[in-house]
Amino acid sequence: CIFSYLFKLQVGLTKFMWPWNSPLFTWKLYRKILSLDKINSYDCIIAVYSQLDPILATAWLKRRYANKKIISYFLDSLSAGPTPTFLSEKNKLKKGLWWEKTLLKGVDGVIYMKSSQNHHEKYSKDKEYYEKVTFLDIPMLKLSEENFSNKTQQYVSSKYNKSLKLTYVGSIPLNIRNPLYGLKVLAACESASRLEINFVGQMPQSNSFLIDCSKIVRVNWVGYVKHEAALQYIKEADVLLNFGNKVEGMVPSKIFEYISYGKPILSFVPDMWEPTIPYLDCYSAACTIVETENFSNNVLKAQRFLTHLPVCNFTKDDLNEKFFLNTPESFADYIDLQLRNVKV
Predict the structure, then answer these.
(1) H or E segment and range at residue 63
(2) What is the pLDDT of residues 288-326, one digit of tens each?
(3) Are 275 and 245 in contact (CB under 8 A)?
(4) Degrees (nearest 5) of the Cα angle 261, 171, 258?
(5) 95 in Cβ contact with 87 (< 8 Å)
(6) Would you say 127 and 103 are in contact if contact means Cβ atoms under 8 Å apart?
(7) Which residues on neighbouring strands pair with residue 220, listed in sequence order?
(8) Any bridge partners for residue 92, and if so which?
(9) 13-64: per-residue pLDDT in tens?
(10) CA-CA distance, 193 to 287, in Å (whole number)?
(11) How far apart are CA 322 and CA 199, in angstroms?
(12) Are 267 and 289 contacting, i.e. CB atoms less than 8 angstroms apart?
């Protein structure tokens, strides 16, 4: 069948070209940047890596206009990111490092996230571009006076509440994070019958996953909503749920939005190397449950947390200082120094 042949051809090309899978889109993006630059004459262009195209298109632009300041911004890591199913970890690392070396040597600045610092210190320090690298962090901490205006209010012992609203906000790519273990722990808690568990965001297209979850505990699958609506669910929650990533250098950005609201956070992680642990260890209202530890002990730990919810005893200024690299201000400071040609 011709469709089967074309599909196999596409898969073969994807393996060969990974992570570049859309040359036509990259070319269109490059042409769009050129046309916008002619109108606006940009001093600085920031290419954000979510897929390779912005990094590649701005690398082409830099070759054409050497005086144009180009910053490559990696919120997710290329060489330290998830491994596609069609590649081995070794081949993914090799390809990722080659693309980084090739595309970043000509840019003016490279921003990596703190969570991938160990990786890049191990694999990238000998590369030509590395002297231009700065480690910031996911800039999602946006503290408001509204969230921290009444720090005298304490959470009462939740055993007296009729129900407790637990909310997860975010997507669930099952190859990266899986909530099944966390749901099993919650289902085994004494307070399971009065837990209202909400999942807000893009859900897996897997009927078997949804069936497995429904066998464990009652869950309200809200599904995808606009960002403003998702923030409202965070505001209304008693406890915010996190399910840790299986990729060591990949920190879920939702953690910093969670912290921004000063709410209790219950986090389930696959192992002790999970990247949210150092952040939540610095946050006074969090409980981290490690899946490799004893299940019964984990149930008791979750039950104690849910029975006596902790209070975030930090002020807004405390959190700003402790998590400064996660604020938009830290990113703005970096760009300001770049525009003033101050070595970062």
Answers:
(1) helix 53-64
(2) 999 999 999 999 999 999 998 888 878 888 888 889 999
(3) yes
(4) 10
(5) yes
(6) no
(7) 198
(8) none
(9) 666 788 888 889 999 999 999 999 999 999 999 999 988 999 999 999 999 9
(10) 21
(11) 29
(12) yes
